[in-house]
């Protein structure tokens, strides 16, 4: 007697090869958002150029991107842009260092001491509530119209984000780590290098990113105070001659400087987060 297999016969299927599973499709799915992020500003520039060429946008109001580029190339050829970048960059660096040291030191002091929190923090919070750009007239009366008020204005804007982030990061350190360090007999230097610094580094870098954005914003305003050098001087001089293309180019340079410095800090931030995650 013969027996028949009652199991259903399942037809063999072959992998589908087509646009849905092609390597090109997979690569597009992986990088499409990056591509769109790059293409969107290019599309805006093209529409802007077309609208200017068609006469929809007046050159006196918003010049075409090609005219703005020509103005930038002119500044680059005559050396004015390089000189302005050196001066403006120096102002930001000086203000960032001064305000950064003040903010981190005060944040660490208030974060580590309850007495300092009760005595130092309230006046600092009152000062933080003031719009620091509104202090320009007072800074001019106190320090004149030279380099000092410009650097101090940048430093004042930089100090508070670093102060708040340092204070918050220190207060969020796991106390078990500190107690373990005490039990193991760590010195203050060992506790700082192995516990405090790695714990506060990520949030400190977040504060640095915020401070850099405020530093460039403060510089734009500060360089309007009778500046005779720097990007602000180029913009003021262009305003006097009704060179809207040069003004917009100067603002674009400010924006690019801000994005560049923020990108550098973001790279450092990723490394710090990877270090803390691995530890």
Automatic annotation (TrEMBL):
<dbReference type="GO" id="GO:0005886">
    <property type="term" value="C:plasma membrane"/>
</dbReference>
<dbReference type="InterPro" id="IPR000515">
    <property type="entry name" value="MetI-like"/>
</dbReference>
<keyword id="KW-0813">Transport</keyword>
<keyword id="KW-1003">Cell membrane</keyword>
<feature type="transmembrane region" description="Helical">
    <location>
        <begin position="127"/>
        <end position="145"/>
    </location>
</feature>
<keyword id="KW-0472">Membrane</keyword>
<feature type="transmembrane region" description="Helical">
    <location>
        <begin position="35"/>
        <end position="57"/>
    </location>
</feature>
<feature type="domain" description="ABC transmembrane type-1">
    <location>
        <begin position="81"/>
        <end position="265"/>
    </location>
</feature>
<keyword id="KW-1133">Transmembrane helix</keyword>
<protein>
    <submittedName>
        <fullName>ABC transporter permease</fullName>
    </submittedName>
</protein>
<keyword id="KW-0812">Transmembrane</keyword>
<feature type="transmembrane region" description="Helical">
    <location>
        <begin position="247"/>
        <end position="265"/>
    </location>
</feature>
<feature type="region of interest" description="Disordered">
    <location>
        <begin position="1"/>
        <end position="24"/>
    </location>
</feature>
<comment type="similarity">
    <text>Belongs to the binding-protein-dependent transport system permease family.</text>
</comment>
<dbReference type="InterPro" id="IPR035906">
    <property type="entry name" value="MetI-like_sf"/>
</dbReference>
<dbReference type="Pfam" id="PF00528">
    <property type="entry name" value="BPD_transp_1"/>
</dbReference>
<dbReference type="GO" id="GO:0042918">
    <property type="term" value="P:alkanesulfonate transmembrane transport"/>
</dbReference>
<feature type="transmembrane region" description="Helical">
    <location>
        <begin position="151"/>
        <end position="170"/>
    </location>
</feature>
<feature type="transmembrane region" description="Helical">
    <location>
        <begin position="92"/>
        <end position="115"/>
    </location>
</feature>
